[in-house]
Design goal:
single chain, mainly alpha, Ferritin, about 0% strand, globular, Ferritin-like_SF, Ferritin-like
Length: about 260
């Protein structure tokens, strides 16, 4: 019997959990739109089908997370279509559009891997609804990562240097998403995350390192710049760009006329 209750949490712990889940959900919202926008850049019919399929499952993940966030007093309608650009907590890795196919693969791979690493910390969460949701999303992301593994194998075989250049440029921004206050892990301290955030960040680095090893490339740089505008709560610097907000914002049917 699951007798866990969010109401039993201290207000600051509850707020931290809400913000962390919102950061994952909003990142997946933007990533889903990346998949849709970049589908026409696919190199083959399987790419088109794969990207549209990943967009569909990603949107489903977003809506499931938004529904769970209703337990924190959030309104689903507000989360999905009632917020402005400065209220979106997506990873700023996705703020800049991909400049090439290699850049798309590198960036979206990092976003998928990072969000999965973060969610994996909730696989043993005392709320079975959240642990089950994390498990289900993880099963879906597994297949997304297979898509990237296939393309990275192609880049390795062809000796494509552009992919590593893109990965080098994007990786520090993805790493920054895990924050710079790893010694203040309220969720782990209160039994809400089964893996400390510092270990989750290290696990993310380990997964990206495997990519570098496949290319026989030099090790990754963990030199992360936390700019003056870094927001630890939203896990991003600054606000979502207006141009990206216009793409991801919910278009109400009534507003289309």
């Amino acid at each position: 019997m699951n007798d866990f209750s969010l109401e039993s949490l201290e207000p600051n712990v509850l707020e931290t959990l809400k913000n962390e889940l919102l950061a994952v959900a909003d990142t997946k919202l933007v990533l889903g739109n990346w998949y849709v926008e970049c589908t026409h850049n696919g190199r083959s019919v399987p790419d088109f089908a794969g990207l549209l399929g990943m967009a569909t499952t990603t949107y489903g993940q977003v809506r499931s997370l938004y529904l769970y966030l209703m337990n924190f007093g959030c309104k689903y309608e507000t989360l999905e279509r009632g917020r402005q650009a400065d209220e979106i907590s997506s990873m700023d890795l996705l703020d800049s559009p991909p400049e090439s196919w290699e850049d798309f693969i590198a960036t979206s791979f990092l976003a998928e891997q990072a969000t999965w690493m973060m969610l994996s910390g909730f696989l043993d969460h005392p709320d079975r609804a959240l642990s089950g949701l994390a498990n289900k999303i993880g099963q879906e992301i597994y297949f997304h990562l297979k898509f990237y593994k296939g393309w990275m194998d192609i880049f390795v075989e062809s000796g494509n240097p552009a992919f590593l250049d893109c990965l080098n440029a994007r990786y520090p921004i993805a790493l920054r998403w895990f924050g710079n206050q790893l010694n203040q892990d309220l969720l782990s301290e209160n039994g809400l995350r089964n893996v400390p955030l510092a270990d989750i960040k290290n696990a993310f680095t380990a997964e990206v390192t495997k990519v570098y090893e496949a290319f026989d490339a030099n090790s990754l740089s963990d030199d992360v710049d936390y700019a003056a505008g870094w927001n630890e709560t939203k896990r991003r610097t600054g606000n979502l760009p207006d141009s990206l907000y216009e793409i991801i914002r919910f278009k109400d049917p009534s507003g289309a006329h």
